[in-house]
């Protein structure tokens, strides 16, 4: 039987999932999901990064272990809710943000939110597969308002969701509110001018990404007063999967210097 002094108290935080906890991390990497995604996307990342870096995955309502919770479709409301959970989780350990597609947008706005309200900011911001936020959307279609069958065709066309998902009708029906909420966040986003970021931005794009052009990724440089780097990796919008080794290699090299 374990003695009391052998037990470790783990504080449950539904917003932040850590698959590989580290006792005394030097740095934390917070990963934000793409639209329709969840924390499992980043489940194995801790195995490919420095041993003293703890990977913390943001789990939004309406997915994964929070599937039955009501998803949030309004970005300001999402930032307010995430802020409370995030501030109760962090300590004096430095942290960085990574976000893919919608996750990049949320990570950017959360960076501004924390800086403005609390004077807290990540050491750097990794953004992946998303145009710079001050640029307009390419499409005029609001996919979150489409009939379910048309919306699912759109999701399928992005090649980021496994085929088996579309065959599981019960899961599809449970997931639709979350998918619509995520798309509403992206499609109704309005950029508000504000101070430039004070941290480095490292941006990633896919060489065959039809959703996000190289030029639109380069525009991220305009919203920081610090350094900027861009890497183009082989793959479509979800090069996050097809070029994961290269992506993690670049992240590894950068955070090793922090």
TrEMBL record:
Residues 28-252 form the Thioesterase domain. InterPro entries: AB_hydrolase_fold, TEII, Thioesterase. GO terms for biological process: lipid biosynthetic process. Transmembrane segments: none annotated. PANTHER family: S-ACYL FATTY ACID SYNTHASE THIOESTERASE, MEDIUM CHAIN (PTHR11487:SF0), THIOESTERASE (PTHR11487). Belongs to the thioesterase family. This is Thioesterase. It comes from Lysinibacillus sphaericus.
């Amino acid at each position: 039987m374990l003695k009391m002094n052998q037990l470790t108290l783990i504080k449950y935080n539904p917003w932040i999932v850590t698959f590989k906890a580290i006792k005394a991390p030097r740095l934390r990497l917070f990963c934000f999901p793409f639209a329709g995604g969840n924390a499992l996307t980043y489940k194995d990342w801790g195995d490919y990064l420095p041993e003293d870096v703890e990977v913390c995955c943001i789990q939004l309502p309406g997915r994964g272990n929070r599937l039955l919770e009501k998803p949030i479709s309004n970005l300001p409301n999402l930032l307010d809710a995430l802020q409370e959970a995030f501030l109760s989780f962090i300590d004096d350990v430095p942290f960085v943000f990574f976000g893919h597609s919608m996750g990049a947008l949320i990570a950017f706005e959360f960076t501004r939110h924390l800086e403005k309200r609390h004077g807290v900011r990540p050491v750097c911001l990794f953004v992946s597969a998303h145009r710079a936020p001050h640029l307009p959307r390419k499409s005029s279609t609001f996919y979150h308002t489409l009939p379910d069958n048309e919306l699912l065709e759109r999701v399928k066309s992005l090649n980021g969701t496994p085929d088996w998902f579309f065959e599981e009708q019960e899961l599809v029906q449970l997931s639709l509110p979350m998918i619509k909420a995520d798309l509403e966040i992206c499609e109704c986003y309005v950029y508000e001018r504000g101070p430039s970021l004070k941290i480095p931005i490292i941006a990633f794009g896919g060489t065959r990404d039809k959703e996000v052009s190289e030029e639109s990724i380069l525009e991220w440089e305009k919203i920081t007063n610090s350094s900027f780097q861009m890497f183009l990796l082989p793959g479509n919008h979800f090069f996050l999967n097809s070029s994961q080794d290269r992506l993690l290699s670049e992240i590894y090299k950068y955070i090793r210097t922090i």
